[in-house]
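Batch queue: ligand-bound targets. Current item pairs a single chain with zinc ion. No template structures supplied; prediction is de novo from sequence plus SMILES. Inputs echoed for audit trail.
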Amino acid sequence: MSIHIRTSEKDRIDAQRCVDSFYFKNGKCCAGCDWWRYHNSVAGECTRNAPGPDGFPITRREEACGEFKDDFDWMSLPESYRLSIGYRKLETKEISAVSTEIKRYPIMRAIQKPNCYAGDDCDQIKPMWETHCEGDMGDSGTEESVDLDSNLFPPGTRITIAVPVCPECATPNQQVNMSKGVEPCECGFDWKAWTEHEYG
Ligand SMILES: [Zn+2]
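Prediction returned. Tokens below.
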């Protein structure tokens, strides 16, 4: 069930009934979604994700997406109201099985583990990925770049890149040009010394 906002009591009841009727007539759509808050009988806002600078995105009641959720207990409403909105059992279980956040199983990971003894004098820091394949493969190796051809992964595969956060000022280290050497944090924290301590 969508939740109302910003309306007078009579308008609220009319709009609520209108939106609920629309939902039971049409099935899965914003009008029946728990994330949706109607502004009026035809449009409202989607609260599924954090609001942007202009607030929550506005959607129309007939829109539908994979985030649809109807966990509302319609049987808790008076029977007269249920009759007035054309309440019927909708296959929301099937829908929620599809829209449920799926679990992910890690199959690969890589860490930027530089060679701290590179160069002729063995004092250069050379960036390298140390890659690991999980499970039966149990493979690991080092590479200068990791190529991830989207043809080789199923839909829904997620890549997350996480950079170290400065222990002094909590700023993520987002240095992008390692050919300039390992640069210190703006607060002065010595990322080069950390790297040598960690991987030297
Ligand atoms: Zn810092």
